[in-house]
Amino acid sequence: MNRRLQAIENMIRPGIGMIDVGTDHGYLPVSLALHGYPGALFAADIGQGPLSAARRSAEAAGLENRIVFQLCDGLSLCDPDSVDTIVIAGMGGDTICGILDRAEWCMNPRYQLILQPMTRAEVLRYWLVNNEFIIEDERLVADGEEIYAVLSARYGGAMRLTDAELYTGAFSMLEQEPLWPAFLAKQLVRFRKLLRGLRQSGREPGRLQLAERIEQELEKERAKHANGTGNL
Ligand SMILES: C[S@@+](CC[C@H](N)C(=O)[O-])C[C@H]1O[C@@H](n2cnc3c(N)ncnc32)[C@H](O)[C@@H]1O
Q1: 116 and 204 share a domain?
Q2: Which of 4, 24, 76, 101 to mutate to test the pocket of ligand 1 (most atoms within 8 A of CB)?
Q3: Disulfide engineering: 51 pairs with which of 45, 61, 181, 195, CB 3.0-4.6 Å?
Q4: Pair (147, 180) in one structural domain
Q5: Are residues 154 and 180 in the same domain?
Q6: From ligand 1's centre to the CA of 184, what distance in Å?
Q7: pTM score
Q8: 169-217, pLDDT tens digit by residue?
Q9: Could you read off the pLDDT of 211-225 as tens digits, one per residue?
Q10: Atom of ligand 1 nearest to the CA of 47
Q11: 160, 186, 213: which is the final residue of a domain?
Q12: Which long-range contacts (CB under 8 A, 24 or more apart) does 10-13 make?
């Protein structure tokens, strides 16, 4: 298990059941079983190859009868009564939104959603707040050169995020994270590059204005945490 998957596992609470959507190698359900997770464990993947790999991981650990394997798109084979934790990790934010969109039953406060977008996290946060989910917790984890966000969300409530927070997560939730200054610095580099491109092309004044506003918001937040973080 890499640090990213470890961070995801750390956010899972003991419960009646967990499904890992897009399980690939199956490391997460296998690790949960080895660590004594009490509920049912489901490993789902749309690809036959990844699901076979997950099965092999379980067999290698002698756990092939402990985990239920599902070859399917998203949550389409998941019995809503069998789980209270849904993990969707290692995919693009837009793919995660599509999977949730096709499983309306997870719009229920009984489910904890643990979501880890590799790209387009802003699309996922936008989808969540616009569909009455609360992002209850968000953590940052470094793996290699990248810093990933892991979100824990639950249906039922109103939450507001600023334009910049759609890209980073809620500032108030992340300020205590040791990786927050480094994550902000990365986001600033990304926005400054985007701004340069938009200014040069001069073709999208609306997008330019939005990007400028976000850059200012990020810079203000960075300045608050500047002590000891070095120059950007
Ligand atoms: C990069 S792997 C991530 C593996 C693991 N979840 C992780 O975070 O390390 C993405 C996996 O998601 C699967 N996948 C992509 N779209 C899916 C969908 N709609 N439903 C189920 N699995 C999907 C792919 O087949 C692949 O095995």
Answers
A1: no
A2: 24
A3: 45
A4: no
A5: no
A6: 27
A7: 0.94
A8: 999 999 999 999 999 999 999 999 999 999 999 889 999 999 999 999 9
A9: 999 999 999 999 988
A10: 25
A11: 160
A12: 11/114, 11/137, 11/139, 11/150, 11/152, 12/37, 12/85, 12/87, 12/112, 12/114, 13/85, 13/112
